[in-house]
Amino acid sequence: MEETIDKKYKVKRIFDAISHKYDFLNHFLSLGVDFYWRKKAIHYSNMTEKSILLDLACGTGDFAIAAKKSGVHFIFGADLSSNMLNLFKKKANWISGKTTQCVAEFLPYRDKSFTNITVAFGVRNFYNLQEGFKSFHRVLKENGMVTILEFRLPSNKLIKKLYLFYFNKILPLLGRIISKDKEAYTYLPESVGEFDEKIDLINLFKECGFSRIEKYSLTFGLVQIVVATK
């Protein structure tokens, strides 16, 4: 229990601290490919103008803003970091009054409130994935969909070797120089490796009551999209 509480406050501290450089670092460190990843995740989510979206771990709102541009009208954002949420509001005034500071494990929404939930590069920061996915199931309408966009370790040995070198050597150095935070961009590669080794998203979704799960791989297996239907 103590470990999960520690993770919660560690994640909050990190993202509050780097919020002012978060967007720049996302685009810079991914060489801009993150725009493509979000676009593909939105495509696989099958959202329409009538969809009701909760973008969880929404950060500064890049995924929600992309969903808005794709035609989704009803969008809500939730994140543990108040600094991230404040920056989201500055970027998009239409989200004012529609954001909540909370964790995935305890969503303060009524049952069957949303048609879609998205989590972009945030699910590995949950301190209890099973409780988080159970919360998703509760607040989704029937046939509602969860879309997870997340890093993974590539299966190709050469690409994996290059990926780990970048993630463990280059990314922490650049992140530390730009964000001025020593811990944040050391936590990122550590969390990706640990998550990929220990978590089977497909089985976890099944255990939490989701009926159909689809998985897609992007950019040489660097990123995965998992879509689960209630």
Describe the structure.
Helix content is 49%, strand content 20%. By secondary structure, the protein is an alpha/beta fold. The chain has one domain: Rossmann fold, CATH 3.40.50. Strands 3-2-1-4-5-7-6 form a 7-stranded mixed sheet, with helices on both faces. Helix 7 packs antiparallel against helix 8.
Structure summarized in a few sentences:
The protein has a single domain (2-153, 202-229), classed as Rossmann fold. 49% of the residues lie in helices and 20% in strands.
Task: Count the domains.
Answer: 1
**First-residue to last-residue Cα separation:** 29 Å
Q: Work out the strand percent.
A: 15-25%
The CATH C-level name is: Alpha Beta
Q: How many distinct beta strands? A: 7
Uncertain runs are: none
Which secondary-structure class do the elements indicate?
alpha/beta
Mean pLDDT value = 91
Number of helices: 9
CATH superfamily label: Vaccinia Virus protein VP39
Report the C-alpha radius of gyration, rounded.
17 Å
Helical fraction = 40-55%
Largest sheet: 7 strands, mixed
Strand order of the largest sheet: 3-2-1-4-5-7-6
What is the annotated CATH architecture? 3-Layer(aba) Sandwich
What is the fold's blueprint, element by element?
Blueprint: H1 2-18, H2 22-29, H3 33-45, E1 52-56, H4 62-69, E2 74-79, H5 82-91, E3 99-101, E4 114-120, H6 129-139, E5 140-151, H7 157-179, H8 184-198, H9 201-207, E6 212-218, E7 223-229
Parallel strand pairs: 1-2, 1-4, 2-3, 4-5
Antiparallel strand pairs: 5-7, 6-7
Question: Keywords, please?
Answer:
single chain; 230 residues; Rossmann fold; 9 helices; 49% helix
